[in-house]
Amino acid sequence: MGSAAASPPAGSPLPSQDELKRVAAHRAVEFVEPGMTLGLGTGSTAAHALDRIGDLLRAGALPGVAGVPTSLKTELHASRAGIPLLPLGGAAGPARIHLSIDGADEVDADLNLVKGRGGSLLREKMIEGAGERFVVIVDESKLVPRLGCTGAIPVEVVPFGAPHTLGLIRKVFDGLPGFSARLRTVKKDAAEEMFVTDNGNYIVEMFFEDGIRGDLRDISDSLLRITGVVEHGMFLGMATTVIVANRDGTVTLLHKKK
């Protein structure tokens, strides 16, 4: 079920995509309560939430709040915003994560997600999977009929034998029309180099002509059984709430079915 905020006044200019991200992020931060430990997401949408949390901490509105970052980039941003940071695990035991806030690349009708096109999928899944609640913030362009409709589904793989692992991933979808997969590269000094995650791994990008069809959990299991695959970017059944900023300025809340 979803709920929507009131529409903006007639004649108001439509918000930009970045403004939509900020609106959704600020709405998500309303779920944060004093004393919470938060999973801090990665990406441009999550960055707005970090800034808002930092503002509220400085204003004294969120005493005792701390965060567990999902990437080195988020760790740096959160530190600059003044958010106290904790490790996922340590000598004192793992932090209890009350709430995680992060964006998503795609959201389907069952609130399954594609995440990690920026390369942080492993830490995101570890931290957000450890939390009690996971609030996802997106603009309506991220809503899809099937995962894989709008771009790559990332798979993190160990560097050793990565071309071999790529071949095994391709075999999972052998014969599927429109499927392709490649190792992600980045340009550096006019040359192509392998993209390397915060964990020192590579990313395989899987592309589907019309999204993934079939049982997502079976496909997930097939990928994770491949030796050399660390994790993939399908976040299945993890989101408890999705906050959608719409082009008309309204905000819709989608909740996980019980």
What do these coordinates show?
The protein is 26% helix and 25% strand. It is an alpha/beta fold and 258 residues long. The radius of gyration is 19 Å and the shape is globular. 40% of the residues are buried. It catalyses: aldehydo-D-ribose 5-phosphate = D-ribulose 5-phosphate. GO terms for molecular function: ribose-5-phosphate isomerase activity. Its EC number is 5.3.1.6. Keywords: Isomerase.
Q: Percent range for helical residues? A: 25-40%
Order of helices and strands: EHEHEHEEEHEEHEEEEHEEEE
| Estimated share of beta-strand residues | 25-35%
- The structure class reads alpha/beta
Pick out the low-confidence regions: none
Terminal Cα separation, in Å?
A: 11 Å
Question: What is the averaged pLDDT score?
Answer: 92
Helical stretch tally: 6
Sequence of strands across the biggest β-sheet: 1-16-15-7-4-2-3
How many distinct beta strands?
16
Largest sheet: 7 strands, mixed
| Overall outline | globular
